[in-house]
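Protein modeling request. Please complete all fields; requests missing the sequence field cannot be processed.
Requester role: graduate student
Desired output: 3D structure, token encoding
Chains: 1
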Amino acid sequence: MKAAVLTGIREMELHEVPGPAEPGPGEVLLKTEVVGVCGSDIHYYVDGRIGEQVVRYPYRVGHEYSARVVKLGEGVDHRQEGALVAVDPAMSCGFCSQCRAGRAHTCEHLRFLGCPGQAEGCLSEYTVMPAACCFPVPSGMNEEVAALVEPLSIGLYAHRLSGGVEGKTVAILGCGPIGMCVLMPAVVRGAPAVYVTDKIPERLQAAGQAGAVWTGNPLTDDVAAEILRREPEGVDLAFECCGQQDALDDAVRILKPGGMLLVIGIPAVQRVSFDVDAMRRKELRILNVRRQNDCVEEAIRFAAENRQVEAMVTHRFELPNSKQAFDLVADYRDGVMKAVIRF
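Delivered output (343 residues):
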């Protein structure tokens, strides 16, 4: 089968690789339909690592995808055959202390697609996955929207951890795909005001169209001062979605006493810092968001009910042009929001 494979820093080639093994008990063989290019994929493409997870070449990344079920392993419900599914890329053991505590996303034996040392990614024509990771989507949902379920589930999980946004003022710092996946549910679920920052004008325009009451570019605006001018007491919730030190600094400035900072972005560096004095005086709460936990079905329902999710896709590529897709996203060119690779 064909697969797009990392072969070095900012190097990707189309290879002919062995197809996956036959699906075992509880597994399904999937034919890939659409793969979304994620920021974590770009870390591996540009830096060759995220923290201790280091790429050994050649290696296949990719974890946001939709696929068609083509073959069932023993014990899998026959109704899944032929279904278009959104795939949860996290394969947990179900038995460790984390899984038993309801934290499958921090499973002690987790295997995550496109994560070095765990599992090869989905940038290939076929994959084998546990049937439990495959969620059939409604008949009216297309392959691109189904592939967006994975990042949308992260945004919804962040909402869950925040305690809900209804009646709360919200700031979203960084409005790439994850920022948009936080923004859309915030508007739908009753946040009275959502403020959005990003360095790409086209993303700010999209945020305004999605319901943000104000957008600002930290390259040209003092975004914290502008938000505080509109919310003198500060905002209730800040979602950091870009992995940048200046966004963390802005979050501490704009949060009201007792506010919560949810850190979703992945920094390219090993250490970040906070204004400890301001955090202490305000008694701010800081919560890291680790992927998602049990939010896939909720994300499918949200995507089915909100057509604006589909508008996140701004660029489309075919599998042989995967490197162009990764270069586009890595360099933030052409106002890219979400690039997808179609099979």
